Amino acid sequence: MRKNKSVNKKSTTFIVLAIILAILLVSSRTCRLTRRNLNPGHSGITSEISHQQNPDALIIEKKEFMPEISQPDKSILLGKLSSLQRDSLLSPIGKKYANRDGMFMHRDAYDAFVKMHDNAREDGIELTIISAFRDFDHQKRIWDNKWTGQQVLSGNIIATDIVNPVARAREILRFSAMPGTSRHHWGTDIDLNSLNNRYFESGKGKKEYEWLVENALKFGFCQPYTQKGVDRASGYEEEKWHWSYIPVSSVYHFYYPQVITYNDIKGFGGWETARLLGVIEHYVLSVNKDCMNL
After folding, report:
1. Do 59 and 50 touch, CB atoms closer than 8 A?
2. What is the pLDDT of residues 90-144, one digit of tens each?
3. pLDDT in tens, 36-57
4. Are 227 and 238 in contact, with CB atoms under 8 Å apart?
5. Nearest to 277 by CA among 220, 247, 248, 234
């Protein structure tokens, strides 16, 4: 009788231990799966952001980087955001950081700019946003004013004096994007301090530009339209004032030619020339290689 009780006790103990071991194994596997779901990979390309020297700066340690942002909706790429998309993606820019009220930026880009602005100020550099998010209609007003000759082009050129529509569009495209093709539609790009390259070539403007060239990448920003040459053979002229937030804009840049076709680029003066000029290939995609990925 005692032997049977001993055997039953050992069996019960063994069963309890087996159950506890099974629970531990299931718990361990669940934890691993949870961590994997919270940190999904992107084709093996990862980002490594550190705060070793400056806790406010994003120190880029890897050049290959695909932010964890899903394929953007066509309306976002074209600057035709719904009110819901505006509310979820854009943040109003505070007066401290801009030369006027009423401007907006992509939330992530704005947070990064605030850190860059404050860091620059500590170095005696003032960065002021003079243009940021522009929707399709805003860009259309800019383009149509130039197309119809209401706004003079760079070099005191009146666009209506150029009879050939392709040549007219090409002249406007030196410094202005067609509606539906502007990076400003994405909320990731900003114009700083001046819209004149000469401003950044001497004095205060030169110091500001040199600071940006040396430090902007630490905060995730790049200059998309650098001087044209071997690395950027076509597209817009150099814009020293134009800076883009790479972690978001590089994703939009990647998906743009997959989502947008020339049938989507229309509804403004001279839109028919977009295909003839290859604006997607030669303008939208023609940017400084530093802006394509981290």
Report:
1. yes
2. 999 999 999 999 999 999 999 999 999 999 999 999 999 999 999 999 999 999 9
3. 333 333 333 333 333 444 444 4
4. yes
5. 234
Contact 122, 215 (CB under 8 A): no
User: What pTM does this model have?
Assistant: 0.78
Pull the structure tokens for residue 164.
């050939």
Task: Write out the DSSP string of 222-252.
Answer: E-SS---SSS--SSSPP-TTEEEEHHHHHHH
Contacts of 112 (CB under 8 A, 6+ apart): 58, 219, 220, 221, 245, 247
Phi, psi angles (nearest 5°) of residue 51: -130, 45
Residues 218 and 54 sit within 8 Å (Cβ to Cβ): yes
Q: Give residue-wise pLDDT tens across range 235-288.
A: 999 999 999 999 999 999 999 999 999 999 999 999 999 999 999 999 999 999
Taking alpha carbons only, the member of 175, 79, 169, 75 closest to residue 132 is: 79
Amino acid code (one letter) for 241:
W
